[in-house]
């Protein structure tokens, strides 16, 4: 388990019990558990540590320093649960950021709810996360319940309804594919031409792809984790599925590793996401330039969502008068995050939270964007096809 810890400077007082009480009140503790397996994953960790270091340098959180503890859960549910437990009970953090993978975030929810520590999610999209009803959960990324609508509508109206689906066993990949199938059935009266779930850690999808090819689909949906998505796209051409068949991925398609590693196989792939590097807004172009210069990559929506999360969290923390009572301070942080209204950052639409622990209140970003890769490889390019802002109850 990789751990990076940034500690605030200590304040030395002469009274033993007073020292402990004052230090707790004067230090804000943030815990992080998310996926750091690829080079880009570690750069997300660098973005967090760099941002917190800047907060500490400026003393912007009401003059209080931040104690940051970061763990790598490797997209493994058991590690995510262990990390959340340690952060809540041993590290005694005020708020937890995490995780990236929905299959990790889902089992973390009961842990953070029981510990009554707010958890703010940077990347996980599975709709069931906020359906659990926890008052301590906040989601910055777009929920899959919105993605399935915009993706289904765009696909049906622009690409076709004859669809073959290959999806992984991970929670987000499976949820996206099955939700899209249900949407297509309900709204267009069509069943999948072919639908199959791949095995755990499976790397060769050519047998599935050959069967999908035999159905003569208009659209091929590949919905899995990053490495599996890349392999599926590349292998789809190896088995002879023609270019005229539209390739569709889940929001994971926004990860820079997809076009970089898939190369020419990424060209023409469409996906719904929360941000595109081709966004012409000044705030977006400034962010893209910063990430390229500082971290050496073109940012996908995982970078933008992490930045939006940190900006929302900074605003919320400034609203809290930390007392040193951990339970009270955690609830105060929860309430401060819940008060977020019309936050305008890198997301294509405003982010809103509210008090009840419902999906309507805790799925903060309701504006997915349709994006297409116009070129794959290291110097990939995208174009924005459009965006839609949904109502809080849509997709439930």
Helix % is 40-55%
Structural class: alpha/beta
Quote the beta fraction: 15-25%
Shape: globular
In angstroms, what separates the terminal alpha carbons? 37 Å
Oligomer state of the chains in this structure? single chain
Q: Give Rg in angstroms.
A: 21 Å
- Look up the CATH topology of the largest domain: Rossmann fold
CATH superfamily annotation of the largest domain: Response regulator
> What is the correct CATH architecture of the largest domain?
3-Layer(aba) Sandwich
The unreliable regions are 1-25
Q: How many discrete structural domains? A: 2
Average pLDDT: 90
- The top level CATH class name of the largest domain: Alpha Beta
Task: Please tally the helical runs, counting DSSP H or I stretches of 4 or more residues.
Answer: 14
Q: What features would you highlight for this structure?
A:
single chain; about 400 residues; Rossmann fold; 7-stranded mixed β-sheet; 4-stranded parallel β-sheet
Describe what you observe in this structure.
There is one protein chain. The protein has 396 residues and is of the alpha/beta class. It has two domains: 3-141 and 282-289 and 299-365, Rossmann fold; 145-279 and 369-387, 3-Layer(aba) Sandwich (Rossmann fold). 44% of the residues lie in helices and 18% in strands. The strands form three sheets. Strands 1-3-2-4-5-6-12 form a seven-stranded mixed sheet, sandwiched between helices. The chain has a four-stranded parallel sheet with strand order 8-7-9-10. Helix 5 links the parallel strand 5 and strand 6 (137-142). Helix 3 (77-90) packs parallel to helix 4 (102-115). The longest helix is centred in the N-terminal third of the chain and has 20 residues, at 39-58. The two termini are 37 Å apart.
């Amino acid at each position: 388990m990789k751990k990076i810890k940034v500690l605030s400077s200590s304040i030395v007082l002469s009274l033993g019990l007073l020292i402990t009480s004052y230090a707790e009140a004067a230090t804000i503790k943030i815990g992080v558990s998310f996926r750091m397996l690829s080079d880009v994953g570690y750069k997300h960790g660098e973005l967090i540590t760099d941002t917190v270091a800047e907060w500490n340098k400026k003393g912007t959180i009401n003059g209080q320093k931040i104690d940051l503890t970061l763990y790598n859960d490797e997209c493994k549910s058991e590690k995510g649960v262990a990390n959340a437990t340690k952060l809540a009970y041993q590290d005694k953090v005020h708020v937890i950021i995490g995780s990236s993978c929905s299959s990790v975030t889902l089992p973390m929810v009961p842990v953070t709810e029981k510990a009554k520590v707010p958890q703010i999610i940077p990347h996980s999209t599975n709709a069931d996360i906020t359906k659990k009803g926890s008052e301590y959960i906040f989601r910055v990324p777009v929920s899959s319940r919105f993605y399935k609508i915009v993706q289904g509508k765009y696909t049906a109206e622009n690409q076709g309804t004859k669809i073959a689906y290959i999806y992984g066993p991970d929670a987000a990949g499976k949820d996206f594919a099955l939700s899209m199938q249900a949407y297509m059935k309900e709204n267009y009266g069509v069943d999948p031409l072919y639908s199959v779930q791949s095995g755990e850690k499976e790397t060769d999808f050519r047998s599935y792809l050959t069967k999908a090819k035999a159905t003569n689909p208009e659209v091929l949906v590949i919905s899995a984790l990053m490495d599996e998505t890349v392999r599926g796209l590349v292998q789809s051409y190896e088995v002879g599925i023609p270019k005229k068949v539209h390739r569709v991925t889940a929001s994971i398609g926004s990860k820079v590793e997809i076009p970089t590693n898939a190369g020419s196989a990424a060209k023409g792939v469409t996906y719904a996401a929360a941000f595109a590097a081709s966004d012409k807004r000044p705030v977006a172009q400034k962010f893209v330039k910063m990430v390229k210069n500082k971290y050496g990559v073109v940012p996908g929506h995982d970078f933008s969502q992490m930045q939006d999360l940190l900006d929302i969290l900074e605003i919320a923390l400034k609203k809290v008068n930390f007392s040193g009572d951990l339970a009270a301070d955690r609830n105060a942080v929860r309430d401060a995050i819940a008060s977020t209204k019309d936050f305008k950052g890198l997301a294509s639409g405003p982010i809103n939270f509210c008090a009840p622990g419902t999906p309507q209140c805790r799925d903060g970003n309701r504006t997915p964007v349709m994006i297409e890769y116009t070129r794959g490889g290291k110097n990939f390019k995208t174009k924005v096809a459009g965006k839609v802002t949904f109502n809080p109850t849509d997709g439930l």
